[in-house]
């Protein structure tokens, strides 16, 4: 009777271990998804340190970068940077940035899509919204080439 219980317990443990392994495989991120998440995390970290140039490292440094916000489409890395400096002149205005990544979809070896939510915690308010990003792998690095934030 005890040996039967031990065998059943072993079978149960094997089933649990296999289930956990399958769960982790099914829900783990790919290498590319992790690399993209790291780009966004680096941006968040730079923002929270008041480092707009560091934040901009996640963007494609090109006149073809597209940023779409409340003023409509804006083109170019420099224009995007200048708009950030104008809108967020100091650490107090920048607040603390939080992201919730809802989806990272790697389309192919060089293109990906990200859907997420942003939240700025500031002294007097907490603006928030959603963003969609298109990233492209340029010189072996993922860069945001289109940013639509609302």
Give a verbal description of the structure:
The protein has 150 residues and is of the alpha+beta class. 43% of the residues lie in helices and 35% in strands. It has a 6-stranded mixed sheet, covered by helices on one side. Strand 1 and strand 2 form a beta hairpin.
Question: Quick summary of this structure?
Answer:
The chain is of the alpha+beta class. The chain has 5 helices and 6 strands; from the N terminus they run αααββααββββ. Strands 2-1-6-5-4-3 form a 6-stranded mixed beta sheet, covered by helices on one side.
Write the layout of secondary structure elements.
Layout (H helix, E strand, L loop, with lengths): L1 H26 L3 H18 L3 H5 L9 E4 L2 E4 L1 H11 L3 H4 L1 E13 L2 E11 L6 E11 L2 E9 L1
Parallel strand pairs: 1-6
Antiparallel strand pairs: 1-2, 3-4, 4-5, 5-6
Beta-strand proportion: 25-35%
Number of structural units classed as domains: 1
Label the structural class: alpha+beta
Total number of beta strands: 6
Order of helices and strands: HHHEEHHEEEE
- CATH class group: Alpha Beta
Give the overall pLDDT as a whole number: 88
Question: Distance N terminus to C terminus?
Answer: 65 Å
Q: What summary fits the major beta sheet?
A: 6 strands, mixed
Gross geometry? globular
């Amino acid at each position: 009777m005890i040996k039967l219980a031990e065998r059943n317990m072993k079978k149960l443990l094997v089933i649990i271990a296999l289930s956990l392994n399958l769960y982790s495989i099914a829900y783990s991120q790919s290498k590319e998804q992790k690399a993209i998440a790291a780009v966004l995390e680096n941006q968040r970290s730079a923002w929270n340190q008041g480092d707009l140039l560091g934040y901009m490292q996640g963007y494609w440094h090109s006149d073809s970068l597209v940023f779409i916000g409340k003023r409509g489409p804006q083109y170019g890395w420099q224009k995007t940077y200048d708009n950030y400096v104008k809108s967020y002149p100091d650490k107090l205005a920048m607040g603390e940035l939080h992201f919730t990544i809802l989806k990272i979809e790697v389309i192919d070896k060089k293109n990906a899509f990200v859907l997420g939510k942003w939240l700025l915690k500031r002294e007097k308010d907490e603006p928030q919204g959603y963003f969609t990003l298109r990233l492209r792998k340029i010189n072996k690095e993922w860069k945001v080439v289109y940013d639509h934030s609302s």
